[in-house]
Design brief:
CATH topology: Alpha-Beta Plaits
CATH architecture: 2-Layer Sandwich
Strand order of the largest sheet: 2-3-1-6
Number of strands: 6
Distance between the termini: 38 Å
Largest sheet: 4 strands, antiparallel
CATH superfamily: RRM (RNA recognition motif) domain
Strand content: 25-35%
Number of helices: 3
Length: 94
């Protein structure tokens, strides 16, 4: 089963292809995205990489968390699932 990883502290110049290249050194990459500001604007400094299986994901975390890339130490961990319904409810209460 594939595992989705959060990748933080990215250079604002990083691309999805850069992520694929970096993470493919630790295992097979299924998908990689860089999160941008709404409207396709500037990158927000983080992204997500989906590895084909949990073992590849754990190996990527082991090798890349804290690794310096483009002068920045990557933060790599298993992505938390976002509960959109809960988020909407919290926003409505404010």
């Amino acid at each position: 089963m594939s595992v989705r990883l959060y990748v933080g502290n990215l250079s604002f110049d990083a691309t999805a292809e850069d992520l694929k290249e970096i993470f493919s050194q630790t295992g097979e990459v299924e998908d990689a995205i860089i999160v941008t500001r709404p409207g396709g604007g500037r990158p927000r400094g983080f992204g997500f990489v989906t590895m084909v299986d949990e073992a590849a994901g754990q190996e990527a975390i082991r090798q890349l968390d804290g690794q310096e890339v483009a002068g920045r130490a990557l933060a790599v961990n298993v992505a938390k699932e976002r509960d959109r319904d809960n988020k909407k409810s919290e926003d409505e209460e404010e």
